[in-house]
Amino acid sequence: MQTSTEIKEERNIKLIIEYDGTNYHGWQRQPNAISVQQTIEQVLNKITKQRICIIGAGRTDSGVHACGQVANFKTKCSIPIEKVPNALNSILPKDIIIKDAVLAAEEFHARYAAKGKKYSYIINHTKFPSAFRRNLEYHYPQKLDIEGINNAMQIFIGSHDFKGFMSTGGEIRETIRTIFNFDLKQEEERLIFEISGNGFLYNMVRIIIGTLIDVGRRKINISDIQEALIKGDRSKAGKTAPPQGLYLEEVYY
Hints:
Layout: E1 6-19, H1 36-48, E2 55-56, E3 65-77, H2 84-89, E4 96-104, E5 116-124, E6 138-139, H3 146-156, E7 158-161, E8 176-187, E9 190-197, H4 204-216, H5 222-231, E10 246-252
Helix pairs in contact: 3-4
């Protein structure tokens, strides 16, 4: 017998999600740790009275944030689409917000349909860190060569083999990616990097930022970056920047 919360036809619902990743071990469901995916699924299970599996556009790491993560799930629950965000937000912890929900095509897949992503990375370069934003930005108080950083950023634009800018542990075999845009904004005491591309390897953005910090410190030069790209030599790139400065801003479809 059909319940009041079910309809005969299954719907594919697309979500736009914002979250502070501080308290989570990344997006992806973990066997022994709390994740963003698992937290949302538990609430969906409660609301729909079904076992829901959501598909995310990207797997953000522990401590990484999102302003525009995209996910989809399929359900026969009859709740109106426009009421989905309020229903979820009323139960979800305050560090996860569903910004929007829309009805997607049956074949829509948040990960496989994505044509690109945009990330940002925030560095606070004041003498002392912010007590309020300590989990939302990377505090780096040393003076940096901004002109050198801007020059080095241009090298990453275009299609390259980014094997030298990937951490071990990734399952991707094809390491060629295309960077569409790479910009740096200065807002008072903060540096805000914005990078968009057709895809990113494991820790690729954080390694690029760590490399640019070393450029700003004059420990790495442009020829080192070029060698890392040409030879796929991870040792020629910089350290991996900390996760708390990184944000998944937008997913392109």
